[in-house]
Specification:
Length: 128
């Protein structure tokens, strides 16, 4: 499981760099500044959570079941949160109105909050 967690963390980190560069160099003339700022927020949160997964994957102090639960919460939360922001920010470039799936963003954010809470709780319990 540690290899999977670290691999997904590295993949999300790499994608964050690629999407950040795309946003900065490919989208700046195509979408309005507010949408670009939203896109960059998605990239930032994706990178934060990629780093969290890398830390989680190398922490020997947490058990496999704890890591698995945190991994699923953070992984799903990152995809739902960041990728829905990417779609919403680039909405004007497509023929589909992604605002109809806007409810996904807070669901992803909630999963991230729960993931961080579980991570903090498990670390606290382990070192207390």
């Amino acid at each position: 499981m540690n290899k999977t967690i670290c691999g997904v963390g590295a993949l999300l980190g790499m994608l964050a760099v690629i999407l950040g560069a795309f946003g900065a160099h490919g989208l700046e003339k195509l979408i309005d500044p507010s949408s670009l700022q939203s896109f960059e927020t998605g990239v930032r949160y994706q990178m934060y959570h990629a780093l969290l997964l890398l830390v989680l994957g190398v922490m020997p102090q947490l058990g496999a079941s704890d890591k698995k639960a945190i991994f699923y919460l953070v992984g799903a939360g990152t995809v739902l949160f960041s990728f829905s922001i990417y779609l919403l920010a680039t909405n004007e470039l497509t023929g589909f109105d992604f605002r109809s799936i806007g409810f996904v963003t807070p669901v992803g954010g909630t999963l991230l909050i729960v993931g961080w809470g579980l991570f903090g709780y498990r670390v606290y319990k382990r070192f207390n």
